[in-house]
């Protein structure tokens, strides 16, 4: 006899002593007697050759009873047997063609203790054929028949063809032989079984009441009673819990509290809860070169999170502020100024620039300098040259009345870090000469920049040149550069670009305190300045497909904390605020309120974007014997302090396209088995923790 059977002390040493072992088997009227390890041949098993799929083993909700054993004269050689004894429930599932995802999830469910008891019993009495949301009992009967075959004594590997056929009839996405996600299949199966076995034949109409500042305990009980009034099945009894969802309007702080049921917890991994972003930092005083800065922010965070991370990394002073802009095609596409804006609006292929500006209480104008260079046509001589934007726009703030000279001086100051080394000395000497000689020297610097069109016959200048369009064409700009101008400044106007007079004041209205200035570069200036640095602008995030990163590690508790962390809703999930009467991007906070007896934990390993699909190989350290969630439950009750033990794992190996699913199952007494489609074999407990763990199944300890 196996030493795991608790026999009376000294009973094996008593010769001729009859030891009676009772085996409760559904459908049998006789007891199976073992006398000194020998089977009483007078008991027949419903005649040999009879289909044993109707046999139901009473497990009484305990995994310890699921590994009972016996010997059968007609046991199959392929059954899982050791030393003349075989174990129930160690039957594999044949792969019908990319159905490993289905086999893995089914093995985990068919080893869920009380669920096995239920389907090995008279579950058909609960089938609801009238439920419009159900499947007229066909899915539950197909699953029940499959489970009974898996628990048949001495069964060979089962081909789940009939179950897959019924599944495809109601869920076309699982038809065919394509690979699918095991968690998506599991979610559909649990929901389908619930609707098929819902004991509520006629669902009552229930009108939910507002919380109205009532205690959370009272409101939660009301929500749960209303939920159970419409949903009463073995799936709800075992697998459904309740969490508290709190929404807060970012404008009026209106709070909305609801209590919703859940079937499983989908926990983000650390790599999915946080996001790495790269921005280019530029100073507004020309003191430093642009530098890329990489920060880590919450994936569902707001702009204020990004600004706080940037301020810390660049050691922002108290008299400075950051202005973040998105640059597209060498122009500022938009400024990111609203702190409550979601970071989900920023894509990985966007290019962001953070301008380091001084704080100023007085009214100041934001000046944006955009660079243009002459693009020559080499193939067609008759095609005129075009001016093309290049480089990163430079930004500065100028207070008071603006003149063309103010703009030029500010622009040259911003360009100073880009000077090539050979020109640094000349630049310093030129600055010293200007300072020593005063205005006369300054006029010498300005004069080459002034176009003839800006001066009258008497030598006086106009405020802003608003001449004919011919003066703004490419021919006019090219002619100015031929006259020796190093930079030419043009003001972006509603009627087009207008050349700026260097000495006159700018009286053109500035919209939104922003002035856009186009700067034309001569070939001489392009050679003098390092335009390579000026044009270097990295994307927010560029995945390195060829670089293998070190494996990340995280605990299951850290994943749970990331799941329960407050975060803003996405732009596609705006909440309608009853106070504001508008859709708002509210912040959402989840709290665990009521935990189920069977806790299913889904680790979100797969991430999707517009251009790439990725699987995270993060190693999650999860407890196997003592999962304590008491500190994460907002509502304490008699069962909140009870720990959970792990009894099954659905694993995914490989990548997105060519992966494979298996399952680990605890068959009692710490004996783990691996279910790899039709193959079932024991596995050591130290192997069950790996980066392949995808869905975890826990049972609450009474």
Description:
This protein is α+β, with helices and mostly antiparallel strands. The protein contains 16 helices and 34 strands. The protein has a domain of 195 residues: Phosphatidylinositol 3-kinase Catalytic Subunit, Chain A, domain 1 (Ubiquitin-like (UB roll), Roll), CATH 3.10.20.90. It has a seven-stranded mixed β-sheet with strand order 10-26-34-30-31-32-33. Strands 12-11-15-13-14 form a five-stranded mixed β-sheet. It is elongated and about 95 Å long. It starts with 24 loop residues before the first strand and ends with a strand.
Q: Roughly how many Å is the radius of gyration?
A: 37 Å
Largest sheet entry: 7 strands, mixed
* Approximate shape: elongated
| CATH homologous superfamily caption of the domain at 274-377 and 386-418 and 486-543 | Phosphatidylinositol 3-kinase Catalytic Subunit, Chain A, domain 1
Text of the CATH class of the domain at 274-377 and 386-418 and 486-543: Alpha Beta
In CATH, the architecture of the domain at 274-377 and 386-418 and 486-543 is Roll
CATH fold naming of the domain at 274-377 and 386-418 and 486-543: Ubiquitin-like (UB roll)
Mean pLDDT: 76
Helix content: 10-25%
- The first-to-last residue Cα distance is 30 Å
> Which band does the percent of strand residues land in?
25-35%
Helical stretch tally: 16
Low-confidence stretches: 1-5, 10-15, 24-79, 81-86, 431-484
- Structural classification: alpha+beta
Strand order across the largest sheet: 10-26-34-30-31-32-33
Number of strands: 34
Function: Recognizes and hydrolyzes the peptide bond at the C-terminal Gly of ubiquitin. Involved in the processing of poly-ubiquitin precursors as well as that of ubiquitinated proteins.
GO molecular function, one term: cysteine-type deubiquitinase activity
Domain USP: 91-701
Family: Belongs to the peptidase C19 family.
